[in-house]
Amino acid sequence: MNVLLPFAPILMFVCIFVGSGAYFSFSGRPNAFSLLSPETAIIPAIMLAWIMSPKTSKEKMSDFLAGVGQREIVNMCTIFLLAGAFGEVTKSIGGVNSLINLGTSFLSPSFLLIGIFLITAFLSTSIGGAIGTIAAIGPIAAELSSMAHGLPAPLAMGTVVGGAMFGNNLSVVSDATIAAVSSQGANMQKRLKINLMIASVASIVTVILLWFSATISIGDIKGGDYSLLLIVPYIVLIILAYGGVNVFASLLLSTTLAGTIALFMKEDYGVITFSNDLSAGFKNVNSIMLLSLMIGGMSGLVGEEAMTKVTGAISTWMSKKKKVKSSLPQLIIAGLVSMATTLLSNNVVAVIFCSKVAKGIAKENDISPHYTATILEVFACGVKGVLPYGAQVLLAASLANISPLSVIPYVYYCYALLVSGIVFMLLMDKKAAVLN
């Protein structure tokens, strides 16, 4: 119990955040888990951490600010800003609509479900946001399900959620990716190599399941207007990221390219509009930035010794399990982040909360930081995509006017991702470590 006592502030945050969501759900309020913001819920937890610390007020403030100013936290927030700017600029200039219309222009009935999944996956990988992707593709998928014979709305929306979580897991501008890579001190390119091994298997399984899921009959689908030039910033970002270019530089170059293209293509798009879009993009990520800073401050108050105790306790327990396979540390990290995601209904916050304990376990067991970042990300995203009270499923269900519970069985990709991740840890942990 003494080992877990320092984590009372974190447990308080979980109780307040999840408890309020459960209360509002029973009260019949829509979007129950979004009514109380996590930035607000964490304030009492910070107060408790402050009270529990035995140090003087001056020392407590110093610890709090040291936690806020951690290199990983500052790096994370910087990338959040650039990712928000890129998403807002490309949306404003019409890049998102062009990407959607391009895909729907080439869909055929036989490949309708697979096409929805691939378009959603590509868009979410490009913009890094599952919610934005579902908001963009969801209405189209809902309309297609009403037009098609043999395409139930829950199946269509579950496919959209799965595709959105594909990008949330793999995209270099995803909040979850940024949090996992930054917190573990991992290399983005090496992390991508490991993650692709897991995601590729999950994607193939998903495509096979979608192929056999429905017999669809539908007339010709006509996509809207699109411009290939407006899609170029997405392609450039993906090429730069997968080519090993620093995430900061990749985002900066791609955002600048998007704005430059718009300045030459659109008569009503000027430098002031570009500036306003950048500012709006920065504002879009204010909440997650603020939450990251406050979590960093709270971890500073809790202290490194608390994380060391937990890591040591887990390591001691594992050392007694001599008959258990060497993948046990990875499975524990996966279990911790899965549990945190289920409780918090937020994969980014779950990754941030588990990051220090995961890093300690990885260090004790010589696990590659790139591999640890992948574990955190894969299981946080996989679990988040199948939560009936998660923002992604709730949004998808609301767009199609169906129950969130009806969507859950059809989020094939997330189930395949979780299974693929477990198999990978059991069979290929040694090979993954070589990539360090």
How does this model look, in words?
By secondary structure, the chain is mostly helical. It has one domain (5-433). The chain has 21 helices and no strands. The protein has helices at 8-26, 38-52, 57-68, 71-92, 95-105, 112-127, 130-147, 153-170, 175-184, 188-211, 228-242, 247-265, 271-284, 286-302, 304-319, 328-344, 347-364, 369-384, 391-400, 404-407, 412-433. Helix 9 (175-184) runs parallel beside helix 17.
Concise summary:
With 436 residues, the protein is an all-alpha fold. 76% of the residues lie in helices and 0% in strands.
List keywords for this structure.
mainly alpha; 76% helix; disordered C terminus; single chain; 436 residues
Topology of this structure?
Elements (H helix, E strand, L loop, with lengths): L7 H19 L11 H15 L4 H12 L2 H22 L2 H11 L6 H16 L2 H18 L5 H18 L4 H10 L3 H24 L16 H15 L4 H19 L5 H14 L1 H17 L1 H16 L8 H17 L2 H18 L4 H16 L6 H10 L3 H4 L4 H22 L3
Helix pairs in contact: 1-2, 2-14, 3-14, 4-9, 4-12, 4-13, 4-14, 5-6, 5-11, 6-7, 6-8, 6-11, 7-8, 7-19, 8-10, 8-18, 8-19, 9-17, 9-18, 10-18, 10-21, 11-12, 15-17, 16-17, 16-18, 17-18, 18-21
Distance between the termini: 36 Å
Number of helices: 21
Largest sheet: none
Please state the CA-atom Rg, rounded to the nearest Å: 22 Å
The global form is globular
Question: Which structural class best describes the helix and strand composition?
Answer: mainly alpha
Provide the low-confidence segments as ranges. Answer: 430-436
Mean pLDDT: 81
SSE order in H/E notation?
Answer: HHHHHHHHHHHHHHHHHHHHH
Helical coverage, percent range: over 70%
Number of domains: 1
